[in-house]
Amino acid sequence: MKRLLFAWCLVILSLPANGQRKQVPRVNYSPESKIDKYNCQCVHRNSYTVTQRSKFYPFNRAAKIELVSYNGAEGPNEEVITDSIYMLKQAGKYHPVKIKRWDSPFADHKVDTSQFMQAITLSKSQVNNLTDLFFNIRERKHNPYIVYGEMSCFDPRNAIIFINSKGEIFAFIEICFECQKIEPSSDKINFGGWCLQKMDKIKQYFASVGIQYGVTTRVMPLLRTTQPPSTF
Description:
Blueprint: E1 24-25, H1 34-39, E2 42-44, H2 50-53, E3 64-70, E4 80-81, E5 88-90, E6 93-95, E7 98-99, E8 116-121, H3 124-136, E9 137-139, E10 158-163, E11 169-176, E12 181-184, H4 198-209, E13 225-227
Parallel strand pairs: 8-13
Antiparallel strand pairs: 1-12, 2-9, 3-8, 3-10, 4-7, 5-6, 10-11, 11-12
């Protein structure tokens, strides 16, 4: 799998049409020049209107967009009786409970929605905010000579899924906030420009919408939860 690298700034590289998925990891190199670090800071630019942003793939084909969380970090596990970390508190006391067998929902290029711990459908305004974050948040000034490095880990627990008018998931973006990497299902997916704080802003967006696991906590929820759209 071919990876794309980004540390203080992100760059998007083109992939050959071989069906491989690409990763967009955050660069872990700190520029020595203060001006380089300054230029890599995120700034908001009104580069694209709402209408223009909605025409970028996969937003242009999506009838519904969801943010999800899942246990994609440690691979398959058997059903277990929870230890003290996952005890269920009832009537002021903690009781061990049995949780389901978790696996990666995106294994073998298929999407198993039963593995989602949380799935929150975005409202129209939330989608607009997401496209604004993708396409109008950019580095202050691009420097093609910035040195890029790679973070080796990728343990995704969150994703953005795109659903067409038939109810089919046709595209998705896996995200590992811990390792600061993004992996889209297709190299056609457009992220817009990248900058120093962009992953942090995406993380803040997930938290504001209501996604917890992989964002604000690493403790797995006991049951799958579906929430109505929240105000962002």
